[in-house]
Amino acid sequence: MVEKNNKGSHESRRSFLKQGALAAAGFMIVPRHVLGGKGFIAPSDRLRVAGIGVGGKGESDLSEIAKGPADITYLCDVDTRRAAASVARFPKAKFYKDFREMLDKEHKHIDAVTVSTPDHQHAVAAMAAMQLGKHVYVQKPLTHDIFEARALTAAAQKNKVVTQMGNQGASGDGVRQMMEWYNAGLIGDVHTVYCWTDRPVWPQGIPWSSMKAEVPKELDWDLWLGTAPYKDYIDKLVPFNWRGWWDYGTGALGDMGCHIIEPPFRILGLGYPKSVECSVGSVYVDEFKRGYFPESCPPSSHVILKFDGKNGKEITLHWMDGGIQPERPEELGPNEIMGDGGNGAILIGDKGKMMCGTYGRDPQLLPTSKTKQTNTPQTIARVPEGHYVQWVNAAIAGFNSPKDKLISSPFSIAGPLTETLLMANLAIRSFDIKKEKEGKTSFPGRYIKLLWDSKEMKITNFDDANQFVKRTYRQGWSLGV
To answer: Could you tell me which residue ranges the Gfo/Idh/MocA-like oxidoreductase bacterial type C-terminal domain spans (predicted)?
Structure first.
């Protein structure tokens, strides 16, 4: 009897284990949408990434993302010439020209999307992906206009997705070192910031070409134009020089602002600016005849933005481009490089100063001898995996996970940062608003300070400037909000 009972016990145990194994196996093949909501990825999975804009910077973005637990499964680009290297690198990825078609057909097989298109297409591509619950990595600047930046910031939270803007310096050690110096009180309360760049390194302040050119057979020009007004194709616009035209790019501010303004913006906890004013470089086409090229960004500019600081004191941020630079700090030696030479940022406090180069690299206290003499404790975690893999890991972990909360440039930060540089561009564009009345020409947006109501997203003292807050898309394109 005992033997019989033992046998029955063993049989029962084997039956239980078998049923448990079957149940476990069944659990493993439950569809991911049953396990979690929008944007959920099973912890054992790799991130399935689709790239929108996969040539040039898009190619390097995908290559970096692929270093993490990610598979590049779909590629999308309007120009097969530019996409060729990514197609060769990721031969298993299916290729599309229109991201709308790709998302419509393949969204069930995509976890996350990268957007590395020209600036004017960032928002529509990112928004379409987020509305499908896809995590997004978007190149800087986040958007082309202020309304888009505010809309994407809200959409990231609404759709519960993990986001990252492509300003890689946000994950660097430099900005974290500067934050530790600032938090330790080494330079006191900052009241003035200078940011500068040697950009543009492409033509600006020029007229649109009158020479119509033949569209390359590999390029879908209509798709490239996307949200922008229709214009005939011209040479030397694609793939780089679009940056100098307002319909597509955001000038030197869009190209470098997110890299250079980001350190002071993060360190000081800046929010939306309250006012902006500017002066811009001139192009003269004849004696005393200033060129008027409102479609193109100016060759240089100096913008002054005012913020309310956290301590109740005002903070002034100067932006300079086109090779214009601020006065060298008196603490900097005559042969020492300011910033990294062509680019940099200086933060001036009531107790001291500090500076850095592009991406927050090479942070220095001033005088620079203080840098090696100062030893502050490390209080802010570094990002050894880098900007791209940080996003991959956070996307796998999911929205609002501990890894998501450590993301370096989520839209909650990248959105307001982008709005700041786009506010500077709003002032620059307002400078060129032309009025004709009774045979007289005037430029009412020049030499004034624009006052910004961030809640209502409008300039309160010069209504003509508000046309630059939100673009009108070409027919057939929508942000979906």
So the answer is: 212-271
Contact in structure between 296 and 204 (CB atoms under 8 Å): yes
Q: How far apart are CA 361 and CA 418, in angstroms?
A: 20
Here the tokens at position 180 are 């530790």
**Residue given tokens 């928002």 in the structure block:** 123
Task: Round to whole Å and give the CA distance between 21 and 18.
Answer: 5
Residues in the chain: 481
Residue with tokens 């997110």: 258
- C-alpha distances out from residue 113 to 48, 127, 133, 162, 433, Å: 9, 11, 10, 11, 37
Q: Are 265 and 409 in contact (CB under 8 A)?
A: no
What gap in Å lies between CA 173 and CA 126, rounded to an integer?
28
b (16+ CB within 10 A) / e for 57-73: ebbebbebbbebebebb
Spatial separation of the C-alpha atoms in residues 381 and 127, rounded to whole Å: 30
Spatial separation of the C-alpha atoms in residues 369 and 47, rounded to whole Å: 45
Q: Cβ–Cβ contacts within 10 Å for residue 327, how many?
A: 8
* Whole-angstrom distance, CA of residue 77 vs CA of residue 330: 49
CA pair distance 307, 189, nearest whole angstrom: 14
* pLDDT tens-digit series, residues 345-398: 999 999 999 999 999 999 999 999 999 999 999 999 999 999 999 999 999 999
Cβ-contact 60, 420 below 8 angstroms: no
Joined together, the tokens standing for residue 283 give: 């192009």
**DSSP code of 209?**
P
Closest CA to 111 of 53, 166, 161: 161
User: pLDDT of 153-195, one tens digit each?
Assistant: 999 999 999 999 999 999 999 999 999 999 999 999 999 999 9
CA-angle at 51, arms to 48 and 52, nearest 5°: 145
Q: Tell me the DSSP string of 16-46.
A: HHHHHHHHHHHHHTS-HHHHSSTT---TTSP
